[in-house]
Amino acid sequence: MKVSFISLGCAKNTVNTEQMMALCRDAGMELLTEPQGADAVVINTCGFIDSAKTEAIDNILAVAELKQAGDVGKILVTGCLSQRYQEEIMEEMPEVDGIMGTGSYSEIVSVLQELQRGEKPHRFGSIHAPVEELDRVLTTPNYYAFLRIAEGCSNHCAFCVIPSLRGKYRSRKMENVLEEARALAAGGVKEIIVIAQDITRYGMDLYGEKKLSALLRELCKMDFHWIRLHYLYPEAIDDELIDTIAEEPKILKYLDLPIQHCNDRLLRAMNRRNTKAELLELFAKLRSRIPHLVLRTSLITGLPYEDEAAFEELCEFLKEVRIERAGVFPYSPEEGTAAEKMGNRVDTAEAERRAELVVDVQSRIMDAFNESRMGDVTEVLCEGWDSQSMSYRGRSWAESPDIDGHIYFTAERKVEEGEFVPVRVTGSMDGELTGELWEEEV
User: What is the CA radius of gyration of the chain?
Assistant: First the structure.
């Protein structure tokens, strides 16, 4: 059987797709890199916000056109969209031959076999079951990989549907995480990106205490060059974790802390566990104890109760704390969330306008950050040659893959993809940095 996978959404989805690919490989199936010619196309979807749902539906329809043309066989939809809209997908999209939820990834082989027999699988296992330990086929470049340490979320933010799609928070056993990490290191991975919906609470459910610091110390003993962290929730960051990040040279001084907003009333309404004063105190502490720290966050404009004063407060907060990176999203009420039922809702067009204004604020902060780096020599992980700019493309500690852009640099010698090189920053281009290979004379 020839199978092709399309993975949409977050890095956690990427890991699930990689696990399904490994199960299919081990079952003797042939993995295709493109849908054309596949007996089955598996579309692993995101269903978190409207834009993600639209992307998923567009991909399903695009593959459906290939199916109608006879270029692909069956279509299987998996992931968060199918978990969320179990009945609607099959009713409204007759091109789809089967669906599978987020609790059934390990059943991919038997589900594909059902498709092959002409059946219409509808498989939804428990989303609260312990995390299954599965092999992976890495789809990222061989020099970096994601290391998922937990599944689900128990924070229950009022605007978020993830707990109902991914289940309660479940940590993986530390020995299993470390075993997978050793295999990744042995396979040549140099940048490991530690991921979960909330990595700061790792271990609480299994061991009764936070174990992220202990896990990171063990990862630092392995043959990784960089260790990057996504996502840390502000209220769960303690002094032990700050010390670990500050003291371990392999841990990149780049932290992704989703705060969503800073107004106390909104934070309470959204079931967030910080106040504005606590966020200010935390950011000041992080900056003072972790030199050269780069912060990333997620922000939502137009949340219920966000009046003009609260929005202005957010803009002033950002100008004060100067978070270098931010993803900004206009609020969209999600079915099944507490926020959906709240009054005092901001008009969608106004939420979008405010998001654009925040992006403008953040652009100026990012431009200032880029300007501060002029003349610096920074370590860059080369990601290959960029024919459009006629230069090499790479990332430093301050750029996470797929979300933060690149550093484009020239070199007198050939630089290999996956090689770490010193680059002197000399300019900027559309918000991204440019530079040149810097090799001191011996």
Answer: 22
